[in-house]
Amino acid sequence: MKSQQKPVIWITGASKGIGAALAGTFSTLDAVVVLSGRNKSLLEKNVQAINNNGGSAFALLCDVTKKHDVDAAYKKISAKLGTVDTLINNAGVTTFKTFEETTAEDFNAIIETNLRGYFFCIKAVLPEMLKRKCGTIISIHSVSATNVFLRSSVYSAAKAGALAMTRCLRAEVRKSGIRVIDVLPGATVTEMWNEKVREKHHTKMMQPENLAEAVLSVYLQPEGVTTDEIVLRPIEGDL
Ligand SMILES: NC(=O)c1ccc[n+]([C@@H]2O[C@H](COP(=O)([O-])OP(=O)(O)OC[C@H]3O[C@@H](n4cnc5c(N)ncnc54)[C@H](OP(=O)(O)O)[C@@H]3O)[C@@H](O)[C@H]2O)c1
């Protein structure tokens, strides 16, 4: 049943970290937030917290590396809640290995999640957005897309590829009224970093909730205004 007339915001990789923070922050809007990922219990915990807080949230299992998972998730959202107004591509992984240590399996996992996953999710939501001539696609990339960091070669390649892809997408769809917003964050305290790094550097890293607030402010632009790209870094810069 499409019980909601509220805008639908789909956030991938919302079980923890930046995705969970984005879900909490965007749930303060008069909107339904859909949290997807691979960990059912974490997703449900986040959904419950949002709903207990007066928001409106749904959990959905979806592995973004699997096209049929993404397409099935999109179908479920459309049938239950209506058209997706906003997609936030966020699900991502890395390994922090040197190029020499990186295996072909690492390569596949990083590219399949951070690049192909973004492609699949955009492919799912785009046709309806084009039909309606509106919609917003936010992609969480990384400063690694444009800067050199150690132990990040394949991650940087995936992020640079995704950024190139969404930059071209923006040029193609902006005349159709679709906003494509690219977010390039720097170091943020999440489990993507191991405990040692988080303990040592947490004061020099952004908190996911603060990053999410900044993304929300970019989303909430006045009529007729869009932010194409934004770089968000800790005040002290990169680690
Ligand atoms: N932390 C940083 O410093 C930083 C900086 C710049 C950009 N970013 C980007 O921000 C995004 C979020 O990262 P994070 O720091 O929040 O990391 P995180 O805490 O490790 O969270 C990653 C999220 O992605 C999900 N995910 C991973 N693989 C997935 C898959 N195949 N299908 C669906 N969901 C998947 C995870 O969910 P499940 O494992 O539960 O499925 C989890 O919810 C990533 O794109 C990352 O590259 C992070």
**How are the strands of the biggest sheet laid out side by side?**
3-2-1-4-5-6-7
Structurally, the number of domains stands at: 1
Kindly report the average pLDDT value: 97
Identify the CATH homologous superfamily: NAD(P)-binding Rossmann-like Domain
SSE series: EHEHEHEHEHEHHE
Which ligands occur here? NADP nicotinamide-adenine-dinucleotide phosphate
Percentage of residues assigned to helices: 40-55%
Which class best fits the helix and strand makeup? alpha/beta
Largest sheet: 7 strands, parallel
**CATH architectural designation:** 3-Layer(aba) Sandwich
In terms of DSSP E residues, the strand content is: 15-25%
- Helix count from the secondary structure assignment: 7
- Say how many strands there are: 7
CATH class: Alpha Beta
| CATH level-3 fold name | Rossmann fold
Low-confidence stretches: none
Short description:
The protein is of the alpha/beta class.
